[in-house]
């Protein structure tokens, strides 16, 4: 069975469990309310379908069907408890609050608690059965994850031996290792050498690698940034063997009771429900701003056209999520042919900026057409500012980890912009990048709201550039 099919199987199993739990609750409800007629009718079966659909959608937003094979049963039970509690509260206010058969608060408490216990128990039992079956397939080596070891010295050998001891629990199958420094390696007696770490992109594709374990020596840590940059966007799970200092800092997590202490590089920057909520928020706000602000934008466009020759709108190619190019839109704030000598960044006293353009930049009016990019899904309201490929090449030459910023949609405003401000040269771009990386590693809806509030303050105070 393909690994992708497991998510579908888990979803179907959850749907059936939620379906049965609702029918069981209906029967128990009749008993709790002392109603004479108890039975299962066709209308009950029909009404259970939307309830089961609601639960599977809720579990999907909860991230239940993401990487199901690797999930821990204990962690999944804790996650299920909070998901069930949330879902039952929603169903209570949507369906049970106006239940005609309930007349006292005691009956409310009984019906709600009964449904929660029934649903949680049925779904928990179903999940434990399905997940236990999956774990058995891993133990039998019917399921495995092609794994690459990066490193060739003592640490690499130790991590290989420890992981290999628990291969029946972890499902990792080592395909080989790659050198960091070319010299004789103790690992070569156990694993084939697949090449040099600089050839990672080709090695990952050739051997269909799904997980990478970086086990470099302390003397090799200067290579870590280069290795992580090469792995950026590769779509593999990355784990790093920690040193004692990192363990004391508390950055090390064990995913399995028999697992090896590793630093896990997060793949999903936000929970599924927050990613959905962020995109929905972006779409609705962009639509609202474009519709309500249409008269203002017409006035801005006319003033732009009257105060300097040239079109009102200006478009330029920028690089977005996953390195995909797109056309960004702005109200033109510079004179036409401003880059006849090639790409150039703007400065505080840039003579290329028109007088009206300076006013627009102070109030960020020139950025408002980018809400159309947000509507199209090319940008987000909050995210790292998109750059041109010309400048990205210069930034990555000095700071290869710039590629980390391409993991998310670029934004109209960003933490780097509100904390550091406008970057007038490549060195300032590199320094501003620190704040954008902090944002990416701490992405949340709450963080977006704080950045938006700061941006509004900057606009009201006219401190834009």
Automatic annotation (TrEMBL):
InterPro entries xref list: Bact_transf, EPS_sugar_tfrase
Aminoacyl-tRNA synthetase recorded as keyword: no
Annotated Pfam families: Bac_transf, CoA_binding_3
Keywords from the named record: Membrane, Transferase, Transmembrane, Transmembrane helix
NCBIfam families listed in its UniProt record: EPS_sugtrans
CC annotations in GO: membrane
Organism this protein belongs to: Catalinimonas alkaloidigena
A GO molecular-function annotation: phosphotransferase activity, for other substituted phosphate groups
Name the UniProt record assigns to this protein: Exopolysaccharide biosynthesis polyprenyl glycosylphosphotransferase
Domain Bacterial sugar transferase: 278-460
Record localization: Membrane
Taxonomic path: Bacteria, Pseudomonadati, Bacteroidota, Cytophagia, Cytophagales
Membrane spanning residue stretches: 7-28, 40-65, 77-96, 116-134, 280-303
Principal subcellular localisation of the protein: membrane
Family per similarity comment: Belongs to the bacterial sugar transferase family.
Membrane topology term: Multi-pass membrane protein
């Amino acid at each position: 069975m393909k690994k992708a099919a497991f998510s579908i199987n888990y979803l179907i199993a959850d749907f059936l469990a939620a379906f049965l739990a609702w029918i069981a609750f209906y029967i128990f409800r009749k008993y709790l309310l002392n109603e004479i007629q108890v039975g299962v009718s066709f209308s009950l079966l029909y009404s259970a379908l939307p309830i089961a659909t609601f639960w599977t959608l809720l579990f999907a937003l909860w991230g239940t069907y993401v990487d199901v094979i690797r999930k821990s049963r204990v962690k999944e039970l804790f996650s299920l408890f909070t998901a069930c509690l949330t879902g039952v509260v929603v169903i209570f206010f949507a369906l049970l609050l106006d239940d005609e058969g309930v007349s006292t608060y005691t009956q409310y408490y009984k019906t709600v608690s009964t449904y929660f216990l029934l649903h949680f128990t049925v779904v928990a039992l179903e999940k434990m059965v399905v997940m236990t079956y999956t774990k058995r397939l891993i133990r039998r080596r019917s399921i495995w994850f092609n794994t690459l070891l990066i490193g060739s010295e003592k640490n690499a050998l130790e991590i290989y031996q420890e992981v290999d001891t628990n291969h029946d629990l972890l499902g990792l199958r080592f395909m080989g290792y790659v050198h960091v420094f070319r010299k004789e390696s103790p690992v070569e007696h156990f694993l084939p050498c697949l090449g040099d770490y600089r050839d990672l992109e080709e090695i990952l594709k050739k051997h269909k690698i799904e997980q990478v374990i970086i086990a470099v020596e302390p003397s090799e840590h200067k290579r870590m940034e280069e290795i992580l940059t090469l792995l950026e966007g590769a779509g593999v799970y990355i784990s790093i063997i920690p040193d004692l200092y990192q363990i004391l800092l508390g950055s090390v997590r064990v995913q399995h009771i028999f697992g090896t202490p590793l630093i896990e590089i997060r793949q999903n920057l936000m929970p599924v429900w927050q990613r959905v909520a962020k995109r929905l928020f972006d779409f609705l706000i962009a639509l609202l701003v474009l519709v309500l602000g249409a008269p203002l934008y017409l006035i801005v466009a006319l003033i732009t056209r009257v105060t300097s020759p040239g079109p009102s709108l200006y478009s330029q190619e920028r690089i977005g999520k996953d390195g995909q190019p797109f056309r960004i839109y702005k109200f033109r704030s510079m004179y036409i042919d401003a880059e006849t000598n090639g790409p150039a960044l703007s400065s505080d006293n840039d003579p290329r900026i028109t007088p009206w353009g300076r006013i627009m930049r102070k109030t960020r009016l020139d950025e408002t057409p980018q809400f159309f990019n947000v509507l199209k899904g090319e940008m987000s309201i909050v995210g790292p500012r998109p750059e041109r490929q010309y400048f990205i090449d210069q930034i990555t030459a000095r700071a290869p980890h710039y590629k980390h910023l391409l993991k998310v949609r670029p934004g109209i405003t960003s933490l780097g912009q509100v904390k550091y401000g406008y970057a007038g040269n490549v060195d300032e771009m590199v320094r501003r990048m620190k704040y954008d990386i902090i944002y990416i590693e701490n992405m949340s809806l709450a963080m977006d709201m704080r950045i938006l509030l700061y941006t509004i303050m900057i606009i009201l105070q006219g401190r834009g550039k």
